[in-house]
Amino acid sequence: MDDFSKLCIHTFTNKPWTLDQCIENYAKEGVKGISIWRNVLEGQDLNEVKVKLKEVNIEVVSLVRGGFFPSILKEERIAAIEDNKKLLDQAAILEAPLIVLVCGADGRQSLETSREQIFEGISELLPLAEQTGVKLAIEPLHPMYAGDKSAINTLKQANDMVSKLDSPFVGVAIDVYHLWWDPSLQTEIKRCGEMNKIFAFHICDWRVPTLDFLTDRGLMGDGCIPIKSIRSWVEEAGFAGYNEVEIFSDTYWAMDQQVYLKKIKEAYLKHS
Amino acid sequence: MDDFSKLCIHTFTNKPWTLDQCIENYAKEGVKGISIWRNVLEGQDLNEVKVKLKEVNIEVVSLVRGGFFPSILKEERIAAIEDNKKLLDQAAILEAPLIVLVCGADGRQSLETSREQIFEGISELLPLAEQTGVKLAIEPLHPMYAGDKSAINTLKQANDMVSKLDSPFVGVAIDVYHLWWDPSLQTEIKRCGEMNKIFAFHICDWRVPTLDFLTDRGLMGDGCIPIKSIRSWVEEAGFAGYNEVEIFSDTYWAMDQQVYLKKIKEAYLKHS
């Protein structure tokens, strides 16, 4: 039987669609989970969004994305924390259980300094996370983003950071795109599971060759990531949540999005 | 005093130049080492090249590049080994002490399988390496190349492979571009030094943002790599060889190459 009960899609995967179009089409196609990106929430009444989602029985899996803590400028670090607090409030209204953190990096300072600022930034969010009941997931990003997007580039680093923060409100988002190449991945997934810290699991594929740093991700099956193996490691480590399809792709964004959504469902069954 | 005694430049850094232009201009500017890419050797009499280099007192630091061992097709794996043998013979004629290996990967098979084929490929080259006296340097490549260019993506993996191959003819080429982001870099440089396996050291910079997977490298000082720190680790680990400037850059290739060569020398003194 075709099981879509654990299929979640990120709104950015269907970037040409508005939030309403995402909700309508996901409902029609039996997609049970949605991860909502901030851009589609602009100008929306969040309470109305919540009602719409409940009407069609779609669960909000996460709000994407917070983070970007490091900066050589103190005022930018303060602004980032304020921005993340706003996001926590939005998540609380939407009843989103989780915010995904792209932790940030500033190439004008060392990775070590950026990591300290990430630790400090997340620490400052913890009281509000606890108060709102919204969790935070550190998403380690591929080393090709270490210069500007995240100073946390392996699951080991994310596990270390989560362990040091030591809060039930902080865990990890595991994305196959960022981590597939890492020879310590299986070991660190096990460790993350033992800490009960696997908060999210994202899937897509790595195209060979990949032509763009941001918008050339593949649909599952298009590339070389052993998605089924990684999913099995994550599930063996105790994760029972959604498989979130997160694909940035100029190629797929140029397609008819309804046709693309059917392709996503096929690829989900066949290659993940 | 301006010390260029350990400055080596890769011919591909000045891609618009022929080998003769590289030799002539490096000699004029007091560059003491050259790493020669295969493309500029096409159609050349290698014995004549060797004589020209001796006349201007420029040392061949390495021949670039061999490797590309993995393939799902056996005939391609055999062809790769034959090609590497040819390269060893060329290196012997040029009296190049070293061949840099970009080990290869095939996205149609697992990284583990590709690594086994890399091990087998290098093993098959060892008798000829010993016979010709030419060494082989495994260059771990950035994880963004794991899909197609190398299944060896960290210095730890290179150290492990070198340790397993256990030959005085196999070591490592450390390139800051590929490895700067790795939190275990300092530890693994120390380990590599303790094994006496640091065979080469390549420098350039990581631009923020980087716009192309291949041809947007920065000149030292253009980006966020802590080149001086990494160089100090390499030297503390016992390396006393050349600092090899290896930059692929559409931007710099579009410049007057003589002006660019002066910029390279300035950046070398100031930022490495």
Fold and architecture overview:
- 2 copies of one chain form a homodimer.
- By secondary structure, chain A is of the alpha/beta class.
- Chain A has 10 helices and 8 strands.
- In chain A, strands 1-2-3-4-5-6-7-8 form an 8-stranded parallel β-barrel, surrounded by 7 helices.
- In chain A, helix 2 links the parallel strand 2 (33-37) and strand 3 (59-67).
- In chain A, helix 3 packs parallel to helix 4 and helix 7 (185-194) packs parallel to helix 8 (227-236).
- The model of chain A has no long low-confidence stretch (mean pLDDT 98).
- The A-B interface holds A 107-108, 110-111, 142-144, 146-148, 153-154, 156-157, 180-183, 206-211, 213, 223-224, 226 and B 107-108, 110-111, 142-144, 146-148, 153-154, 156-157, 180-183, 206-211, 213, 223-224, 226.
Please describe the structure with a list of short key phrases separated by commas or semicolons.
homodimer; 272 residues; alpha/beta; eight-stranded parallel barrel; 43% helix; globular
What's the layout of helices and strands?
2 copies of one chain form a homodimer.
Chain A: E1 7-10, H1 19-28, E2 33-37, H2 46-55, E3 59-67, H3 74-94, E4 98-102, H4 111-132, E5 135-138, H5 155-165, E6 170-175, H6 176-179, H7 185-194, E7 198-203, H8 227-236, E8 243-245, H9 250-253, H10 257-271
Parallel strand pairs in A: 1-2, 1-8, 2-3, 3-4, 4-5, 5-6, 6-7, 7-8
Supply the number of helical segments of chain A. 10
- How are helices and strands ordered from N to C of chain A? EHEHEHEHEHEHHEHEHH
Structural class by helix and strand composition of chain A: alpha/beta
User: Order of strands side by side in the largest beta sheet of chain A?
Assistant: 1-2-3-4-5-6-7-8
Largest sheet of chain A: 8 strands, parallel, barrel
Task: Choose one word for the global shape of chain A.
Answer: globular
The oligomeric state of the chains shown is homodimer
The level of helicity of chain A is 40-55%
Radius of gyration of chain A: 18 Å
